[in-house]
């Protein structure tokens, strides 16, 4: 499983088999439906609903805050349609997303001096991811509350998930529960197992295509 990175597209079938074997003892894979495959590294994740969902944003934030779903919906909303590309080779085209652009959420809490990266934690208690601050400031990185024209379902990582449009799917953390501004990039769950920290899909345009 080491060194998957962008090579996943070329050898997707083989990598999918490896991922299946790696995940099976610690959670497994829900079979594909609607073009998506559903992954969890911890098995069953208890759902959270309107009343019990909270997103904490802290670390090197000037105004740390906890957001409810209503709070997130009250912030400026961004909509975009982009493909979802898994590192193991499968892709779902033209997925409609909506939510808070991560730059707008960061502006709401303020970025303190010394912050150069953003770390994300899943409320599954295990999965983490990170972006550099410049990556997190892209307009095509969403704290997504809607997907495919409706609220993000639990299997898709709802009620709130991360969507990083220009990167492979493992960067788009499901069941988003915490965001932390940090002094450096902290490798996430799969990076600690050999995946690339920078997971651009098509490096020729991954650094320049901005959503509006």
From TrEMBL:
Domain Oxidoreductase molybdopterin-binding, residue spans: 44-190
Matches recorded under Pfam families: Oxidored_molyb
Protein name: Oxidoreductase
């Amino acid at each position: 499983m080491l060194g998957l990175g962008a090579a996943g597209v070329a050898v997707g079938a083989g990598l999918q088999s490896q991922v299946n074997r790696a995940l099976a003892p610690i959670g497994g894979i829900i079979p594909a439906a609607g073009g998506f495959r559903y992954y969890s590294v911890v098995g069953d994740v208890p759902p959270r609903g309107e009343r019990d969902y909270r997103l904490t944003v802290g670390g090197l934030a000037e105004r740390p805050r906890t957001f409810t779903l209503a709070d997130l919906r009250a912030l400026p909303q961004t909509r975009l349609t982009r493909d979802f590309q898994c590192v193991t080779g499968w892709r779902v085209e033209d997925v409609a997303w909506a939510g808070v652009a991560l730059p707008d959420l960061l502006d709401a809490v303020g970025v303190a001096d010394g912050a150069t990266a953003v770390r994300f934690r899943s409320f599954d208690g295990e999965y983490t991811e990170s972006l550099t601050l410049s990556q997190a400031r892209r307009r095509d990185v969403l704290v997504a509350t809607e997907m495919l024209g409706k609220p993000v379902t639990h299997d898709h990582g709802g009620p709130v998930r991360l969507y990083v449009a220009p990167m492979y799917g493992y960067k788009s953390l499901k069941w988003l529960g915490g965001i932390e501004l940090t002094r450096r990039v902290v490798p996430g769950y799969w990076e600690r197992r050999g995946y690339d920290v920078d997971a651009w899909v098509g490096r020729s345009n991954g650094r320049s295509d901005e959503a509006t």
